[in-house]
Amino acid sequence: xGATQSPKTIHPVTRTDAxxxxxxxxxxxxxxxxxxxxxxxEEKIKIALLLEEMGVDVIEGGFPIASNGDFEAVRxxxxxxxxxxxxxxxxxxxxxxxxxxxxxQHAERPRIHTFLSTSPLHMKYKLxxxxxxxxxxxxxxxxxxxxxxxxxxxxxxxxxxxxxxxLCRTVESAxxxxxxxxxxxDTVGYTVPExxxxxxxxxxxxxxxxxxAVISVHCHNDLGLAVANSLAAVGAGARQIECTVNGxxxxxxxxxxxxxxxxxxxxxxxxxxxxxxxxxxxxRASRLVSAITxxxxxxxxxxxxxxxxxxESGIHQDGMLKHAGTYEIMTPESxxxxxxxxxxxxxxxxxxxxxxxxELGFELGDNALNDAFRRFKEVADRKKDxxxxxxxxxxxxxxxxxxxxxxxxSLQVIAGSKGPQTAEIExxxxxxxxxxxxxxxGPVDATFNAIHVVVPHTARLLLxxxxxxxxxxxxxxxxxxRLEENxxxxxxxxxxxxxxxxxxxxxxHALNKLLTKRAKTAPAALRA
Length: 528
Ligand code: KIV
Ligand code: ZN
What we know:
Blueprint: E1 22-25, H1 41-54, E2 58-62, H2 68-80, E3 85-91, H3 94-104, E4 110-117, H4 120-127, H5 131-148, E5 152-157, H6 164-176, E6 181-186, H7 193-206, E7 214-219, H8 226-235, E8 240-243, H9 257-266, H10 282-293, H11 314-322, E9 342-344, H12 350-359, H13 366-382, E10 386-387, H14 388-400, E11 406-414, E12 421-429, E13 432-440, H15 443-454, E14 460-468, E15 477-485, E16 488-496, H16 499-521, H17 523-526
Parallel strand pairs: 1-2, 1-8, 2-3, 3-4, 4-5, 5-6, 6-7, 7-8
Antiparallel strand pairs: 9-10, 11-12, 12-13, 14-15, 15-16
Bound molecules: 3-methyl-2-oxobutanoic acid and zinc ion.
């Protein structure tokens, strides 16, 4: 109530196209709430820029009051992203809302997303507030947000378990107070498609001013229904879907952006809606988020799993050879998955390599290009066939290990059944060469122990994971490690045809991130 209208754009999408679905990505907010999925500032900026290029309408960058890291991430994303709206989350408290607005100051299209629980269970036990108090807090918080920011979204948390009368009353008041998006969260992933579409229809029929807002949905996947529920809601009139890359998010995650978008595109015949997403970016976004978080995508995951376009059985392969439509409802190219082609060998030159990188979506500066080319030559010398996936893995690795304090130089390992397994490592620490030769309980343990001798630390290894980039025994290994120190976790990745070298690179990558984190919190203690 009493909100002042600002001249700035209120909505990222003009509402002239009634069937256009606004895609709201919350990978960096709800997605980051998955235990162990933390992302640093540089990584969040990388993801935000890719989402913008991909055509995401709204990017939720974080929860600014939650931590300085979240604040900084939203602020920096707000500075660099120009075409998508940038959103910051806030509880129904003045301090939260003001902190979100502070972070969004420089955004071309800022949005404050404020929320408050409305279900009887949450109001009584979590908030310990009466419905009247909650109702007043909704009006106060949305009005305050709207006085600061031209674009305000309001969510009744646990919306699907809220009494209908109370839901209608709070939604109506939130719209009157200035919210132009009303997001209905299925916070605990409890609803089912028919029930959820009926809820959206009920809101449309009973909230008198509902046409003044866009209805959004935010579905969790506890019963594996997040995408189905989101699509059912669209059928009933919702026009914004909140989702995450690879379905990352609290507990079982959120609706996966790639599934929502490809379902709408592939079944346009029964769901005549459009999005602004350039679907060819889907695979890149999935790989980037997986690399940054260390959350491996399950092979049979829809759209982005390694097997999503693989045809194993003879009958299927035969059908595919005769007509791709026999077993393929969408093409691999439509999600940016090039055919796994043999690209280049050891005789390929720098120019061809640069062209190939461009085709794969990488534009590298001179130093990174030189480094990636050197690594490509090493791989091509050792590996018979070099595939696109190999190049993506080594370029990701080269980009990640750019200007870091600890650099890998060499590794020699004695492994096998006779033991003791021994690793001899050479690293550069701030440009100075350091070596160590150490034994361990197996070659990986020996390698990590040797790194520990060169770079003493107290971090705990939480995860060690190896993934083959392509087929064959000469495939590159992509290793992910997750380290934890003083409650902070970091993820490191490394790729190499030698699994132990990839392991050392991944461990060093994670340690470099820890050094950066330590430098930010306690500069004096850092100097190793
Ligand atoms: O799941 C949820 O209810 C949320 C809200 C903050 C929208 O993430
Ligand atoms: Zn959520």
